[in-house]
Each structure stands twice: as structure tokens, then as C-alpha cells.
Amino acid sequence: MLQIETPTLLLDKTRCLRNIDNMILRSTKAGCSLRPHFKTAQSLAIGKWFWERGVRQISVSSLQMAVYFAEGGWDDITVAFPVNILEGKRIKYLSQKCAKLQLLVESSSDVEQLDNLLEKPLGVFIKIDSGSRRSGIAAHNFEAVEKLLERIKICKKLIFKGFLTHAGHSYKARGTTEILAIQQQSIGLMRNLKSRFIKDCPSLILSAGDTPCCSVADDWAEIDELRPGNFTFYDVMQWQIGSCSLDDIAIATACPVVAKHPERLELVLYGGAVHLSKDSIVINGQTIFGLVAKLGKDAWELPDVNNYLRGLSQEHGIAKLSQSFFDEVVVGDVLAILPVHSCLNADLMRAYRDFEGRSYDHFGSYFR
Amino acid sequence: MLQIETPTLLLDKTRCLRNIDNMILRSTKAGCSLRPHFKTAQSLAIGKWFWERGVRQISVSSLQMAVYFAEGGWDDITVAFPVNILEGKRIKYLSQKCAKLQLLVESSSDVEQLDNLLEKPLGVFIKIDSGSRRSGIAAHNFEAVEKLLERIKICKKLIFKGFLTHAGHSYKARGTTEILAIQQQSIGLMRNLKSRFIKDCPSLILSAGDTPCCSVADDWAEIDELRPGNFTFYDVMQWQIGSCSLDDIAIATACPVVAKHPERLELVLYGGAVHLSKDSIVINGQTIFGLVAKLGKDAWELPDVNNYLRGLSQEHGIAKLSQSFFDEVVVGDVLAILPVHSCLNADLMRAYRDFEGRSYDHFGSYFR
């Protein structure tokens, strides 16, 4: 049995496997290949569960993370982040190590520098901004896309793979209708690009897929691959967006109760910003940093929105509870915090434990 | 010279030493002993600079961090966090290892359990809430304090040291007048406690001190020790509060530029929430996640509020720049991000580099 003394990241394997199976099924039904984004779990052990289900291609969010997974046996990796040309050595190493390595480009300077440094060819996607306004060429800017494509064509070491987007603006949606509207708007733009350039580049593919859209939308016609990541664990934010239920959230941080303040129904938990991250969400007008749940021997109970973290400092979490929940808790108990943002929570905790006490690795224990 | 390829936490040793010297001087002038909070730097190497200046007593924010510093040679440590009774073994180890170990208690259950598990005596402070409403007994609640004191007196292993507070509500202040008002209100409450209990406990001390109040206030009469931490590096939040100037900020994260978007004067930086934390602050109505500065060979230039991070995702930072700054930048350049919250930034980065390329350790590389 699991003995908890300090903040500990718990992994509910059953829920995690259900999320993985479900997303594999959804991708198959949609006729898309799944290239899960491993930036969420950042774990070879959890990656293995995908491998066992036939997944052979992944996305990662940094070249260092690509090295971690390449050395763990994955050899078809897309680094879904604008190529960082300063890491030339690492790019060369990865291009040798991986059977298939794909990088993102969005400017002729990226393309030129990348082509110059490589010895072995690799694939490139043109990063497309389909509305999130974070990175990429604006989807309607055919002229810029065409110019970059021409530049790629004269490269000796770059193989054009297609167009890649991340509709991150889906995180602002609330509910299925809003998610679907964003998904249709975003993939509509991608389809236009395909129509325009498929004659010139008949093997080009479209890569899309954020967790909200992939969790809800069924129509992915003409999209070739999906790259969601967060679905592996989901979190309170995804629940609020409408991507999942509270029962789908697969990680929680076990936090010791260190003080009780009955006059304001608040607990002080050992578990702060260095464990959970400062990501927050507004629910019913209240900014919250996580939901508080009771913790049993082999599961956490499903939380409700009346029990939440109202504040976080470096190591302290301040939990606001209903009277009945508050009355049951004593100092020295351990409660479970369901994260607002599971990727950042896992990144900070850098290791997982399941209820049998087994440990699962995280990239963060090795790098940085 | 320092070669930067990926996000790298830079330490400006000159500024850091100036901050340390200044706080030592302020404490001396105020007639208080300084017990710096090492939760900010979390570094034995940086701790050594305090040691070289005669500091022998420190605060930390967890028992694990206490172990790290105790094993690094510090032996007068206050764990400025509500005692976590689940870490009994670690408490026992520390009470053997440190000549002086002080823990915080605020309930009779803390006191009882702590007394039961100890073999060797240690010091306890009663944690007092002087207005921050995070943890501790309300400062005006003499009855509760007296009751707890009586409980401590019958313990065999607990030595009552005094009252300890953290006026965290100073973080809501803007400007000297507001900081001083909070400081006077908070230490006024602490003085009342001293007056009330000094007869019974003639050796009790008062411990106070958050960075804003310690950076600005001169009147600390009757306060025995100060425990600021953030001043070691300061940050954009402290500058906005009024604790420091921009020129006092002693760390910055070097981030490669990976994309430029001229139509909105934005850069994409390799540097996101996993490097900088999601802590933010509103300046001129704009939520910002850091200030963007030019980076030279041996220093960063002082930033201004027109150049800032407007958004952060897991690995991406989106910088909004003035036209003239934007025009100077090319993809592959490296810029410096001055953090909103240096403690969390350092906690995420887990190592420091100076401009000569020297490395400095961080607790996070060893634990968790």
C-alpha cells in the first residue's frame, strides 16, 4: 500500500488506459492516424501503454524530450514546436537516431539554416496558424505558404511532409457547440490549404488536433493525423471546456493536511505552486487552483466544485471546503487535488505513483 | 563565454550580492538578526555567499529542503511552514543533525504528536496570522495562543521559542505608503502578543518579515528576527509592489527566439510555463508573464514595460515588443526574460549559470 508523507502525484492507471483506448478508437473511427503528444505524460512507462496498443508515432514539445523518447526506443517523432536552430547538434543527433523525424518550420531562415546543418534528410511540416495566434503562418496566407514551399523544394535535406496546426483557441470554448465551431473553422482552413497545394505536393498530409476538438468532434475528413496530448490525463480545465467528465481525470496530487481553520472552513495543505503550478480557472466566479477530493486506499472520490483550492503560494495550498467535508478532516490526513492543468502538474512533480506503490518515470527526472 | 541553446537561468552575481549586502545592512540597522529564507534561491552555492557574510541561521519551506541545507553544513534552521507530522522520520533525523531546529505549530494536535515522536528536544514557534489569512492563529486571539502555550509547556521535547508571522498581504500593496501601513499593522499585532506573554515567557522572540516590508520599513522595534527570501533575486512583482528597482532583479531566463510575427509585433520564444511558471501580474491593464530584455555577453539590458510576455503555454512564450526592439531581433537570437516571480522561476529551472558559464546548484536538482 502507498504510504504518503509529502506531496505525491498519483496515477489512476484504469482511467488513463480508458482515456488512451478511447482516443485510439476515436481516431480510428475518424479515419485519422493518432500521433499522441507525449508532452503531457512525458513518460516512457506511460508511453509503453500506447506502444502496446499499436501506436508507433508520437509528438513531443522539445528536442530534449525527443532525445529522451528516441533513446527509449521511439523512432517516429514529430517535434511539435517551432524548430530551435540553436540546437543544431541535437537535431543532427536525432536525425541519425530516428527512422523518421519531423520538425516544424515557418520561415525561410528556418529552412535555410536547417538545410545547411543537416547531414541526413528529415521531414518538415509548415506550421499553420488556424486561429490560435500563437505560432505559424496564417492559414489564409497562401502567398507566404507558397513562397516557403518553393524554398523547401530547393533544399537537399528537407522533405516536405505537409501542414500542421494546433487549434489552441479551443481552450477558450465552453461546451460541445463552441468546441465544434472552432474545430470546423480550423479544419476548414486546413482543407483549403490542402486543396490549393495538393496538386503540387500530392503526398502532403494535414496534421491537427488539440484535446478539446479531438475529444468531441467526429468529422475529421481530409485530416490525416491527430496529435492530442492532454487527454492522457485530462484535468479540471478540460472538464470545464467540455472535453471530459470529472471521472476521466487520471492524475491527482496527494497532499497532507497541515492546519485547519474552522472559522473560514479552510485547510492548509502541503502542496503549493511548486507542485501544482499556478494555472487557474474561474468556476462560478471563483478562481480555483484545483478541486479537493477525499482519498481512499485505492482511489480518490469524485470531487465537487464546492471543495477547491482558493489559493496557492510556493508550498502552501489553501483549500476551501463545505462544512460536512471540513468536519471529517483532521490534521495529518491526506487529500487528493485534481489539477487545473495536468501537463504542468506532472511536469512539476516529475514522477508518478499508482495505488499499489509502483513508480512511473517522467522526463523531468532526467533532463533540464 | 556562455553558449545558450535552450532556456537557461542566468544569475547576475553582482546584483545578487548587492541585494544580500543591502538586506544584511538593513537588518543590522533595524536591530534585528537576519534569518534569510532560502526557499528563493534553494542553493548551497548561493547560501555560501550569506555564510561568508556572517549569516548562520536560515529559514526553509519544507523538511526536505531543511535536509538539503543541513547536509550542506547549515545547523540553525527554521522550517517556516506548518509542521507536517507525517514526516516524523525526517523530523527526527533533522533534530539530531541540526544544533538548532525550529518548527511551527498552531494546534494542540501538532504539539502533542510532535512531542510524542521526538527523542531530542527542538524549538517551536507558534505561527501567528497577522493579516495574511493563510495559516496560523489569529494575532488577536490571545485565548487560543494562551491555551496552546500551556499545552507546549507540559511537553518534554518542545522548547517554546516565540511567535512567528509572515505578512503575506504586503504582496497586495503598491508603493511605500501601502507597504508601510501593512508592516505597522502586522508588527503592531505582534508587539501586542509580546506584551501579553513576555512575563510568562521572558525569552520569547518575535520573528517576522516578508520581502516587501523588509525592503522598505525601517522601524522594527521589538521584532527580533527578519526572514525575507525573495530579496535575494527580487522580480517584476516586487518591482511593481515597490520593494526594488528593475535594476535589482538578479535572475533572468535566456530564451531562444524561434519565430517572428511582424503583423502583430510578436515573437515566439522557446521558454514557457515549464520554465517561467504561470505566475502573472497586471501592468497598465495588461496581464504579463515576464519582461523582455536584450541580452549582451555579460549582462542583460534593463527592460521596459513595452516589451513583455503576453502569454505562456507549456514551452512557448509569446513576446509583444515595441517596433524598434522587434526590428532588431532575428530568429536564433537569445533574449532575457525577467521573471514575474523569481522563486517559482528558479524552482522550475533547477540550476543557475553566470555570465562566465559557472553553474550554481539548486535543491530541485536533487530532491522531489
Tell me what you see in this structure.
The structure is a homodimer of 368-residue chains. Chain A is an alpha/beta fold. Chain A contains twelve helices and 20 strands. In chain A, strands 2, 3, 4, 5, 6, 7, 8, 9 and 10 form a nine-stranded parallel sheet that branches. In chain A, strands 1, 11, 12, 15, 16, 17 and 18 form a seven-stranded antiparallel sheet that branches. In chain A, helix 3 packs parallel to helix 4. The longest helix of chain A is centred in the middle third of the chain and has 22 residues, at 176-197. The radius of gyration of chain A is 22 Å and the shape is elongated. The two termini of chain A are 32 Å apart. The model of chain A has no long low-confidence stretch (mean pLDDT 97). The interface between A and B is large, with 59 and 60 residues.
